[in-house]
Design goal:
One of its GO terms (molecular function) is oxidoreductase activity. This protein is an alpha/beta fold. It has helices at residues 40-51, 66-75, 96-110, 128-140, 154-161, 182-190, 210-219, 223-233, 245-252, 261-268, and strands spanning 17-19, 25-27, 31-32, 56-58, 84-89, 115-120, 144-150, 170-174, 194-198, 237-238. The protein has ten helices and ten strands. α3 packs across α4 (128-140). 47% of the residues are buried.
Length: 285
């Protein structure tokens, strides 16, 4: 079943996808591997996720675990074209030539002929536009199926879009009920840029929230599942991270129920514009 943005209440399967602005399909739900150790830990995490039906895996050069992710991809038994693999350009590698080299390093570690989605990890001032030119080149050569950014604010996106040949397909940002990013989501929606959430569970800090717990009781689900369901129904691609097989399965068990409008509004009301990660405007790159 394929889903397009705007029809998100009907997402009923982990294989459902959103249509990116260049026509590429991206799963609404995937596995993040931030802080998963390279080698057996990240490999088993990815294999457990794929076994549970995940088809989207999100890593980054800065996570230092692309090789383990690649080993899992080679061993999982799923055809390459059924997987959606994201990685990201590390901050020290930004710039035109250095980006081209960094991409090749990531592609080699992952053991892939192409990357589905390649993101600029952070908006390093004075460098991200040159990095984007390199991404456009790689995209035009067919080495990346979609290109995008991560942690970009509205003004970063506006700056990037000036003179760019390709519009970012995705903006991956910190996003959870305490940081709902309404203005950024509206801007990205107007420019057909898909929003993706990292740290969707706010490092577990919302799991005992009264509103979330009440909704979990109402739907006979866990607080984690309520938050992740809120993500996908809000039109937000989400990539919760875990290295535990039971948690990976629990995270994905969100496709057999639906939050109603009152539920969604109750979660929306939790926003405090509160970050737990770095502020893209005040970050030591």
């Amino acid at each position: 079943m394929q889903q397009e943005s705007g029809s998100t209440k009907e997402i009923r399967d982990i294989s459902d996808t959103t249509l990116l602005n260049n026509g590429v399909r991206m799963p609404w739900f995937g596995l993040g591997v931030f802080q998963a150790n390279d080698g057996e830990e990240v490999k088993q995490s990815v294999l457990s996720a794929i076994k549970a039906g995940y088809r989207s895996i999100d890593t980054a050069a800065a996570y230092d675990n692309e090789q383990g992710v690649g080993e899992a991809i080679q061993q999982c038994g799923i055809p390459r074209e059924e997987l959606f693999i994201t990685t990201k350009l590390a901050n020290p590698d930004q710039g035109y030539e250095s980006t081209l080299k960094a991409f090749e390093d990531s592609r080699r570690k992952l053991g892939l002929d192409y990357i589905d989605l390649y993101l600029i990890h952070w908006p390093v001032k004075g460098k991200y536009k040159e990095s984007w030119r390199a991404l456009e080149k790689l995209y035009s050569e067919g080495r990346i199926r979609a290109i995008g950014v991560s942690n970009f604010q509205i003004h970063h996106l506006q700056d990037l879009m000036e003179g760019s040949a390709v519009m970012p397909a995705v903006n991956q940002v910190e996003l959870h009920p305490r940081l709902s990013q309404r203005e950024l989501r509206q801007f990205c929606g107007e420019h057909n840029i898909q929003i993706e959430a990292w740290s969707p569970l706010m490092k577990g800090q919302l799991l005992d929230n009264e509103t979330i717990v009440q909704l979990a009781d109402k739907h006979h689900k866990t607080p984690t599942q309520i938050i992740l369901r809120w993500d996908v129904q809000s039109g937000i691609v989400t990539i919760p991270k875990s290295v535990k097989e039971a948690r990976i399965r629990e995270n994905a068990d969100i496709f057999d129920f639906e939050l109603d409008d009152a539920d969604m509004k109750a979660i929306d009301a939790l926003n405090l514009d509160h970050r737990i990660g770095p502020d893209p405007d005040n970050f030591d790159f």
